[in-house]
Amino acid sequence: MSAILFNKLSLRLLQATAAGLALACGAGAMAQDYPSKQVVVVVPFAPGGTVDNVARQVQEALGDRLKQTVIVENRAGAGGTIGTGTVAKAQPDGYRVGMVFDSYATEAHIYPNLAYSPSKDLTGVSYMVRSPMVLVVPATSPHKTLQDYINAAKTPDTVSYASVGAGSSNHLAAELFHETAGTSALHTPYKGGGPAMTDLMGAHVDSMIASLPLVLPHVQAGKLRALGVTSKARAAQLPDVPAIAETFKDFEIYSWVGMIAPAQTPAAVLKRLSDDVNATLKTPAISARLNEGGFEVVAGGPEQMNALVSSESQRWGRLIADKKIGQQ
Questions:
Q1: For residue 243, is it left (φ>0), alpha (ψ between -120 and 50) or beta?
Q2: Where is the signal peptide (predicted)?
Q3: Fewer CB atoms inside 10 A, N or C side of the chain?
Q4: Per-residue pLDDT tens digits for 191-249
Q5: Whole-angstrom distance, CA of residue 103 vs CA of residue 124
């Protein structure tokens, strides 16, 4: 090898090494200074739903831990993919992150032309909370029991159910329920839990399988009637409501909420944010309030969130393919 060629190769190696060191130092400095400005948490659903509920409960306390203002930004539409898309395209610096519902795990199955890849463009920050779901009907519904509802749904196109979008746990849980029961119902998607609840209480739609925290206040107020819960055992908050598993063995579904960030966010930033989110969730006052509302605090880290998304994607992929569930 000539001396000139050797020198050129050496120079390039030095330049590459220097660039790598600069990048690493820059990421390290970013992590050390994080956060130095307000943090925006995108909720990809309308106000009033489950994800928005959790976000509002941790917003102030999380800001206190981060020593920066935390802004909750609602960006609803397309089953949560519009708001989540803004997180996927954000700078990977920890200043624009998202909170997602269980529907996040099925987006790639539902939207084949999704503008981002949940597995490549985004990563977990925290597996925050989970809750059982509840089959509810309006208080004025003629269906007094789970069996009443099953009997009615045996006649095609006579019962409708609401969801927060195609591929959401509301949608998939209802499809799995009707598949298990040998019944059918018409799907009515909404842009969030809030609008769905409003129409359900107004009897504009017949039923919904929704998260316990979302429906509990309305059941307690007598505006909705609970027919069954999707946990293996009865929920402590609704001890008189049977578990669906009492009728259909091993029927078990949980709704969940987690936090995500752009995939290239420095590990140290993810750790700081995850640690502070999870510490906030474990704060006695906040944990108690969430539990009273029907949530179970999980407070899992990035690895647990990523593992959850992967397992849920695999679990529901079969049903989505079998039922040909897509954009509706």
A1: beta
A2: 1-31
A3: N
A4: 878 899 999 999 999 999 999 998 999 999 999 999 999 999 999 999 999 999 999 99
A5: 14
Pairing of strands 254-262, 207-211: unpaired
Phi-psi region of 157 (alpha: psi -120 to 50; beta: other; left: phi over 0): left
Q: What is the dihedral of CA 71, 55, 280, 287, to 10 degrees?
A: 150
- Give pTM, 2 decimals: 0.81
| Amino acid in the structure at residue 14 | L
| Per-residue tokens: 141 | 């519904």
As a whole number, the mean pLDDT across the chain is 91
C-alpha R_g of the chain: 23
Euclidean distance between CA atoms 324 and 318, whole angstroms: 10
3 state SS for 79-108: HHHHHHHHHHCCCCCCCEEEEEEHHHHHHH
CATH homologous superfamily of 37-131+255-322 equals: Bordetella uptake gene, domain 1 (3.40.190.150)
State the CB neighbour count (10 A cutoff) for residue 145.
12
Alpha helices in 89-168 (DSSP H): 107-110, 146-153
Q: Which residue, chain included where needed, has tokens 């799907």?
A: 187
Residue pair 50/257 in contact by the 8 Å Cβ criterion: yes
Using CA atoms, how far apart are residues 81 and 164, in angstroms rounded to an integer? 12
**CATH, range 132-246:** 3.40.190.10
User: CATH topology of 37-131+255-322 equal to that of 132-246?
Assistant: yes
Q: Which residues contact 313 (CB under 8 A, 6 or more apart)?
A: 105, 106, 108, 109
DSSP state letter for 253: -
Cα separation, 299 vs 235, whole angstroms: 20
In the chain, where the domains are located:
37-131+255-322, 132-246
Q: What's the CA gap between 40 and 98, in Å, rounded?
A: 8
